[in-house]
Design goal:
- There is one protein chain.
- The chain is α/β, with parallel strands linked by helices and about 425 residues long.
- It folds into two domains: about 200 residues, Glycogen Phosphorylase B (Rossmann fold, 3-Layer(aba) Sandwich), CATH 3.40.50; about 180 residues, Rossmann fold, CATH 3.40.50.
- Helix content is about 40%, strand content about 15%.
- It is built from 16 helices and 13 strands.
- The strands form two sheets. Strands 3-2-1-4-5-6-7 form a seven-stranded parallel β-sheet, sandwiched between helices. Strands 10-9-8-11-12-13 form a six-stranded parallel β-sheet, sandwiched between helices.
- Helix 8 packs across helix 11.
């Protein structure tokens, strides 16, 4: 669009308009100043800002980056979710493309193109963002579009046809990507098997805020009082949204097996759609005989408190995980973990937790039983070792540093030398 033409944003002149989608709570002067800053400007595109692993990692990253060196704008394809407020409260500008569920991708394309003005890097999170970001970045002439892969072996038959088409297109487009980022070795290898062929791969793990996720005896006691769980009872938790990947079926089938032992054991699950009234979930709980010993809490904004109340934390995903955040958060809280052998789970847990095959309730129940029979002292020792492992390998401070070094390296590579436009090389 030439200077002086009407823009698709607010009907103003393109040289001065601020794009739609920036909520009134955001100080628009922050966004405007970014356009004239000498700092490295990044735009992060994500499908939505609901509570989820990728969404949480994005929020942690941009709120902890060095603001003297980097400017960040977060763009949600969907209307604003709850994490938008957290970003705004931290002084990070947020925009929405307003794309509702089941609408076609191009709806917000030109709005995104306008938001990319002056950006050195567009980082995209999750498949639909990778596709829309690639299209918008090409139109806008954004020097680098960086895909950030967050999953591994996805069973796409469990998802919509549209998602399968998007992934097939990304496989073909990957050969034009100079660099693709993944949060785990498993994510990289799974996408290579799909046919991803970028020029270069980088792996940066998830990082965890050790001041937010930490052992807290007072929180443990308070939450257990609120939930009606006695200190003498073992509380086993599953923090996960209700999704085929998370495999709540295996969790509750294992719970049923353990409950038949007659021990004082309670179960708690929380996350999106994990609440009474979810017919499929209610049937899983009822049919496995654990309705009286199970708490379903839905979406919670006090996850650090809830984790402290647990005796054992569980990840029982059947497929698709890369680097599951829930394990790092529970480990940082000194809660011993049992996880299925998906993604990088064995490498994350190391010797601090127990790893079982996916879709195997007998093995999951046996792993829980192992921690229970070992006693409170042994569980405390496993939890302490788990936090030590997070401190050494997955601290948020170190992970943010890795991202910052990568962004600075990309910006140096793309710094204009002769004024020539960017050209992509075919492998």
């Amino acid at each position: 669009m030439r200077d002086g033409e009407e823009s698709p944003f607010e009907g103003r002149r393109y040289g001065t308009a601020l794009p739609k989608g920036l909520p009134s709570a955001v100080d628009l002067r922050v966004y405007a100043s970014m356009l004239q800053s000498d700092r490295i400007r990044l735009v992060h595109l994500i499908t939505g800002l609901e509570i989820g692993g990728a969404e949480r990692m994005l929020v942690k990253l941009v709120t902890h980056m060095d603001r003297a060196r980097f400017d960040n704008l977060v763009v949600s394809m969907a209307p604003f979710g709850p994490l938008a407020g957290e970003l705004r409260d931290s002084g990070i500008p947020v925009a929405s493309l307003g794309i509702e569920r089941n609408q076609v991708l191009p709806r917000g394309l030109f709005r995104l193109v306008g938001l990319l003005r002056g950006a050195a890097i567009l980082q995209t999170w999750l498949y639909h963002s990778d596709l829309l970001g690639t299209l918008a970045g090409t139109i806008a002439g954004t020097p680098t579009v960086l895909w950030n892969l967050r999953c591994s072996d996805m069973d796409m038959s469990a998802y919509r046809l549209r998602s399968r088409i998007v992934l097939a297109l990304l496989v073909r487009l990957s050969r034009f990507q100079e660099l693709v980022l993944a949060n785990s070795r498993a994510a990289k290898e799974a996408h290579e098997r799909l046919g991803y062929r970028p020029h270069e791969w980088r792996i940066v793990p998830n990082g965890f805020d050790l001041s937010r996720f930490r052992p807290d005896r007072e929180a443990r006691a308070a939450v257990r009082r609120e939930l009606g769980v006695a200190e003498s009872e073992i509380l086993i938790g599953l923090p996960a949204r209700f999704d085929p990947m998370k495999d709540h079926g295996t969790f509750f089938r294992a719970a049923g097996r353990l409950a038949r032992d007659g021990a004082r054991i309670r179960f708690v699950a929380f996350g999106k759609d994990v609440a009474r009234g979810n017919a499929a979930l209610d049937e899983l709980v009822r049919s496995n005989g654990v309705a009286q010993s199970t708490l379903l809490l839905g979406v919670r904004d006090d996850v650090p408190r809830l984790l402290n109340a647990l005796d054992i934390c569980t990840l029982c995903s059947a497929f698709g995980e890369g680097f599951p955040n829930v394990l790092g958060e529970a480990m940082a809280t000194e809660i011993p973990c049992v996880g299925t052998s998906v993604g990088d789970v064995p490498e994350i847990l190391g010797a601090t937790g127990k790893v079982v095959p996916p879709r195997n309730p007998e093995a999951l129940a046996a792993a829980w039983r192992g921690f229970i029979d070992a006693g409170a002292e042994a569980r405390a020792a496993a939890g302490a070792a788990a936090r030590k492992r997070v401190i050494e390998k997955f601290s948020l401070e170190d992970v943010v540093r890795q991202y910052e070094e990568l962004f600075a390296e990309i910006a140096r590579r793309r710094a204009p030398r002769d004024g020539s436009a960017r050209t992509d090389r075919r492998r």
